[in-house]
Amino acid sequence: MSTDTLARKPFAPGGLLRRGDLGAWPVVGGLLAIAIVFGTLNEHFLSAENLTNLALQLAATGTISLGIIMVLLLGEIDLSAGSVSGLCAVVMTILYVKQGWNPMAAIAVALGAALAIGLLHGLMHTKLRMPSFVVTLAGLIGWQGLLLYLLGRGGTINLPFDGFVSRLSDTWLPPWLAWTLVAVLVGGYAAAGLIARRARMAAALPAAPLPWTVVKIAGLAVALAAAVAVLSADRGVPLLLVIFGALVVALDLVLRHTVFGRWMYAVGGNAEAARRAGINVTRIRVLAFVLASVLAGFGGILAASRLSAVNQASGGSDILLMAIAAAVIGGTSLFGGRGRPYAALLGILVIQSITNGMLLLNVDSSVRFMVTAGVLALAVAIDSMARRGNAR
Fold first, then answer.
1. What helix, strand, coil percent values describe the chain, rounded to 5?
2. pLDDT beyond 50 at 168
3. pTM passes above 0.85
């Protein structure tokens, strides 16, 4: 939808609903329903201990999902994210444990390898005109093979439990620091929202009503305060969750407030129109694949920290499918041009909550897969209806 079209339509939450642009509301409603259903069926589901474990579980896959969002915004796909995450974790672990490197240097080299992989994928897609599906499918197989080669016959390398990498998943914020972060985040969000509203009004653009802005600020404050209160009742706010949250916020700021971000949405919405407007479409696509691989690599490192080991299953199993599903369930369009990094947070919360709740109820894995598939199908259906609504 063009800027002129938006300007002709006054802002209102009801207007968004009528146009089919439901935003994050279906996901938020789904999370509330999940909390009510599983909280009723199992009293342990909403306990501080279980929610803390849930926060630890979602960080790694959520970070990979952030990278998936980068390519989905362009209407592309990255099927290699899981293999890249495992490979980078293995590279980091070999340098750190086997070669005795400084952990920060090992992490930097692993992320550099991820950057090179993303650059290769992007160039193959843009210069050789290979479909992203084929490029990254080859990457999925090839990088998994390299992972197995590097691990060798042993198949498993353990990380020191008291080392830097393992401590990332075993570090907890003291209460005073957690509450300070809440105050800073709410204050920053409020200031940014009010400044943006004033700027839009000064430019005669549609702006959210002040009461609606206040409601959103209050909602964020309540959500963050409730999360800190619950997590502090157990071990505290985990550092892994803070790292993931910081990535979400940073990426959202980049996409919404930089030229690069506007170009990403422009290329995803209509690549030919973006090219005619002078945007280097090839460069944007290559950068998207680079970001996807780097975030996948970092997600793999967080997963290795959580397990304190890497093995032949690193980056495998259903990690890739869960990362893609999280992005789509969170509201990122498969057709490109629409989505925000917060989709990764909301989507992975939905998936991990469903999985966690069914595990507590001892539901068979076959049922878990079918339920997750149903949620994903529903998310895509909503996306398709929203696309038709925007077209009208």
1. 75, 5, 20
2. yes
3. yes
